[in-house]
Amino acid sequence: MRPTPARLLNILVPVKRAVDYAVKIRVNPQQTGIDTNVKHSMNPFDEIAVEEAVRLRERFKDEVKSIKAITIGPPKSLDTLRTALAMGADSAIHVEIPESSPSPEPLAVAKTLKAVIERQKEGVDLVILGKQSIDDDLGLTGQMLSGLMGWSQATFASKVDVDIAKKEAVVTREIDGGGEEVRCKLPLIVTTDLRLKEPRYASLPNIMKAKKKPVEKLSASDLGVDLTPILETLKVTEPPQRVGGGKVESVDELVAKLKEAGITAV
């Protein structure tokens, strides 16, 4: 018989329903935000996070006890959770908010995740989430969660090596100069960069199996958190249209055009 591992890894993967990356973004007529009456899908960076969690299971097999996906969003966000389940997550948590509610801000999301983690009887050893969502591009949730929990963090991860026996991980981070290697103790917050993994496509059998996997529904009041925004967006407008350039036949003509535009040499 194979011996029972001395330590089992429980992974939590937060995912977000966002406007599909292929959709051309438009400002809504009220200029209060973008038009959301378009196709939505899982935030691409979160897809990478789910893939990394599933790859860890494939690598460690019985040593990964559970992969749990979680989302905070309206009823339609259930589809995003089903995608995560079809990719390989075992179960999911849906913190449901009304359809008309604004998307929760990063601090509210981090507080919600903290409350969920503290409710888990089996504990959470590793939280893997996208480094940012492509709708607001804030990139703050992972860092805020780390601060609230007092856990290690490794952001912009392009490689993750976990040593379950030692309860630590070595993470390669994307930085301006190349890669930075950090060694972190578990429990750990990891935010994923594009080069970490290529997400898999969910197969039809797995999509059907995902419909039978458990999804726990919670509300903000169940968790004792307030998702009311503390920031106010005054107005959203599209950037001004770019004016086309023109060709010149000679350097003299270029200099003349620059002078006409009021541009002079220093």
From TrEMBL:
Principal cellular location given in the protein's record: mitochondrion
UniProt keyword annotations, A-Z: Electron transport, Mitochondrion, Transport
Domain (Electron transfer flavoprotein alpha/beta-subunit N-terminal): residue spans on this chain: 32-227
PROSITE patterns: ETF_BETA (PS01065)
GO CC field: mitochondrial matrix
Pfam families found in the cross-reference section: ETF
Gene3D superfamilies, sorted: HUPs
Keyword Transport: yes
Cofactor: AMP; FAD
Domain of life: Eukaryota
Compartments where found: Mitochondrion matrix
One annotated GO molecular function: electron transfer activity
InterPro entries in UniProt: ET-Flavoprotein_bsu_CS, ETF_a/b_N, ETF_b, ETF_beta_N, Rossmann-like_a/b/a_fold
Function field: The electron transfer flavoprotein serves as a specific electron acceptor for several dehydrogenases, including five acyl-CoA dehydrogenases, glutaryl-CoA and sarcosine dehydrogenase. It transfers the electrons to the main mitochondrial respiratory chain via ETF-ubiquinone oxidoreductase (ETF dehydrogenase).
Family statement: Belongs to the ETF beta-subunit/FixA family.
Known partners and oligomeric status: Heterodimer of an alpha and a beta subunit.
Protein name: Probable electron transfer flavoprotein subunit beta
Species of provenance: Agaricus bisporus var. burnettii (strain JB137-S8 / ATCC MYA-4627 / FGSC 10392)
